Amino acid sequence: MQFDVQFAQVKKLNLGGPPGPSLGDEMILSLDVFQNGRKIGVGDGTFTTTRVTGSGPNSVVESQGIFTLRLPDGQLSIQFIQLRDDEQVLPVAVTGGSGVFRGAGGDGTITKGNNSGFVKLHLQFA
């Protein structure tokens, strides 16, 4: 299963302390989901900063991402850890689903773009 996503809304929250990356910061996203150029659904998710190593421009930020995609026949949940802000291809786990995706698991990738991404999932059903 493959589709493109475009960021519809993005909000960054500095929750962990002084300006700049810190533990607990969040980015909240809403997405529009497209397949073959046609909008087929929406998604919502968050990135939560889980580790910051170093400081200033040399800091390395790790984040956990959790997203739910609402597609025509059900929902899919995916989860991943982004090990660096500049990581372009993120390995993801499919952690569940509803509707036709009930019992779904599997893995895949998200390739990051500019306010967009390309999602490729390999689904398995229990």
Describe this structure in words.
The protein is mainly beta. The protein contains no helices and eight strands. The chain has strands spanning 2-13, 26-35, 38-53, 60-71, 74-82, 89-97, 104-112, 116-125. An eight-stranded antiparallel β-barrel has the order 1-2-3-4-5-6-7-8. It is elongated, with a radius of gyration of 15 Å. The mean pLDDT is 93.
Low-confidence stretches: none
Q: Distance N terminus to C terminus?
A: 17 Å
Averaging pLDDT over every residue, what do you get? 93
Task: Tell me the Rg in angstroms.
Answer: 15 Å
Q: How many strands appear in the DSSP assignment? A: 8
Sequence of strands across the biggest β-sheet: 1-2-3-4-5-6-7-8
Helix content: under 10%
Using the alpha-carbon principal axes, give the shape. Answer: elongated
Tell me the structural class: mainly beta
Helix-strand sequence: EEEEEEEE
Count of helical regions: 0
Portion in strands = over 45%
Largest sheet: 8 strands, antiparallel, barrel
In short, what is this structure?
The protein has 126 residues and is an all-beta fold. It has no helices and eight strands. Strand 5 and strand 6 form a beta hairpin.
Please name the defining characteristics of this protein.
mainly beta, 0% helix, 69% strand, eight-stranded antiparallel β-barrel, 8 strands
